[in-house]
Amino acid sequence: MIPYGQHSISEEDIAAVVETLRSPRITQGPKIADFEARLAEHCQIEHAVVVSSGTAALHLACLALELGPGDGLWTSPMSFLASANCGLYCGASVDFVDIDPESGNMNPQALHDKLNLSVAENALPKALIPVHFAGTSCDMPRIAELARGKNIKIIEDASHALGASLEGAPVGNCRYSDMTVFSFHPVKSITCGEGGAITTNSSDLASKLRRLREHGMNRNPAAGSEGPWYYEMQSLGFNYRMNDLQAALGLSQMQRLTNFIARRREIAARYRTELADCPLDFLACPANSESAHHLFVIRPRLDEIRMTRRDIFLALQERGIGVQVHYIPIHLQPYYRRLGFARGDFPAAESFYEKVISLPIYPSLSSGDQDQVIKSLREILD
Ligand SMILES: *Cc1c(COP(=O)(O)O)cnc(C)c1O
Q1: Which ligand 1 atom is nearest residue 183's CA?
Q2: Tell me: the pLDDT tens digits for 135-166?
Q3: Percent of the chain scoring above 70 in pLDDT
Q4: pLDDT class of 234 with cuts at 50, 70, 90
Q5: Separation CA 258–CA 266 (nearest Å)
Q6: How many beta carbons lie within 10 A of that of residue 262, not counting itself?
Q7: Domain boundaries along the sequence of the chain
Q8: How far is the CA of 129 from the centre of ligand 1 (A)?
Q9: CA angle 97-101-102, nearest 5°?
Q10: Which atom, in ligand 1's list, is nearest to the CA of 132?
Q11: What CATH architecture does domain 11-254 belong to?
């Protein structure tokens, strides 16, 4: 089976992890700071804080904004569950902004309309989490402009988008947001096995994030300390630390980030060329944006062919192609339905979901395997 996504581990990666295993510190050692510095450099930003997962990163980002009961968080229904769950972890209420059907990203017009409604009802959200679907940045200038002056904080969920850029600047530089979150799960741009990071230009947010990832503890409290052993807890934190083995792997993977994205770009370009005459559509990517090509999503024109999405999906699977569907809209999950959401709430996300299939894309996908994907899909759609 050719998977839809997979990590690429080199001998250098393995050596980096083994070297750390033999070192005196395997958690919160020197590799954590090195990896954070490397990420900050890549993102052209002041601070990067690494944590145990992308989900932990989202949770801490919400906590650093002091999101809590009575507050609202809006995100995209076309995302992984964690983009919304992070709001619920904090006791906030979660709502969604519908997507642009051409890109799968948060639709600025839908945001505009929803903001106008909530101004009237005095129910503006405290935080907004646009998700860079499939590795292509949302229209951040427009989203930031709509949020401006309304006291809304913006967290970019860039779990798909490490290595992407917008207006020539790397995603993660927070030009249009307060924080950006990344995931280092094995299918993402680079991996730590598990891992996540938050980037920010705010020293205040960065130090809050560092405290919250370690039980809310402060090891260097100001005057009044009782001795060198002294530590104190001022807020309720967690153990969301990344360990040095993960950081060593992430640091080693960062050396190949540019190559990884270049290879993904090549695979995407080849799909676009060789499937150009098939009855299907690709996702849009604006000219001022470079995607990280996390997913390669096709939208078969089901009205032109006598097949359902399920037929196509199963036929690809039968031929050994490990396709996937990204995503079941979050608001349609039973848990979210019990919170009051229903089919019809976000029609663009729902109809997008009905059509999409993700084809295999990852740096080590061989061109022979890609041939097989293309050939199988052409046969099925023929
Ligand atoms: C992967 C992912 C996450 C969660 O990241 P983990 O590292 O798996 O916790 C959050 N949001 C999106 C959009 C993701 O794709």
Answers
A1: 7
A2: 999 999 999 999 999 999 999 999 999 999 99
A3: 98
A4: confident
A5: 12
A6: 14
A7: 11-254, 257-381
A8: 13
A9: 130
A10: 13
A11: 3-Layer(aba) Sandwich (3.40)
SS3 83: helix
Whole-Å CA distances, 266 to 155, 261, 287, 365: 30, 9, 17, 11
Q: How confident is the model at residue 218 (pLDDT cuts 50, 70, 90)?
A: confident
**Does 79 sit in the ligand 1 pocket, CB within 6 Å?**
yes
Q: Vertex 377, ends 302 and 318: CA angle to 5°?
A: 100
Q: Which residue has the tokens 């690429």?
A: 8
Query: Looking at domain 257-381, which CATH architecture does it have?
Result: Alpha-Beta Complex (3.90)
Residue listed under structure tokens 């402060």: 218
Tens of pLDDT, residues 322-367: 999 999 999 999 999 999 999 999 999 999 999 999 999 999 999 9
CA nearest ligand 1 atom 2, residue:
159
Cα(55) to centroid of ligand 1, in Å?
Answer: 6
Ligand 1 atom, smallest distance to 83 CA: 11
Ligand 1 atom 6 nearest Cα: 54
For the Cβ of 185 lying below 6 angstroms from any atom of ligand 1, the answer is yes
